[in-house]
Amino acid sequence: MDTPILVLTIGIFTGFFIQTIIGFAGALIALPFLLFVMPLSEAVGYISIFYLISTPIYVYKEWEHIDKNLVKNLALSSFVGIIVGIIVLTYGKPIFLKKALGLFIILFVLNSLKVKKEFQIMNKMKHVFGFMGGFFSGLFATGGPLYVMIVKNETADVKTFRATMFASLGLVTVMRIPVLALGGFLTLSQVYNSLYVLPFFILALFLGKKVYLKLDEVLLKKIILGLLFISGIALLIGS
Fold first, then answer.
1. Spans of all domains in the chain
2. pLDDT (0 to 100) of residue 122
3. pTM for the complete prediction?
């Protein structure tokens, strides 16, 4: 196994292990690993492949807990955001946007530690956050934190939050794949290389589920906010 495949395996395993436990952060965790050995556009392609594989598994297992109306409300704005994000990925060098996303995430976490009524205004901004989530999903495959902000605000318990995050990110992936393919960011060689990683990816899903079943709801909420904060810092200071 050569170095790029090894790093790809470590990144995908780690990212989707965390993703299975809390419902998001797969791309945020995997992306820094992948960027050591490949350009951003290629990394987004690989992450999208594994999101596409994981989506039917997650959705099938968590179907009864998904807030389906919320997912439907986010669909159109997310699709528009994906298209705009991939256009920027194609023609620009939007590193400053990654830093802006990092700062935004940090401010959200700090605000979440305060009284809940302070961010209820987000109920009126679903489509804006859906667009932003789609935009950063198309651009960096890291739109998850924006969906967290909506879904966390709209769901009453961790089970519903986690399941709805799986569905939201899965929907974004299904919409993103054909746009990436048309833009030339997905190749047959990436699909071929992904086959080497697939057994470790499946292991990550299995172990993540085992760990999730052993964690209580309060701890999961703390992990969610903690990972959001860390991902915000990483995006803010990363190059």
1. 3-237
2. 53
3. 0.73
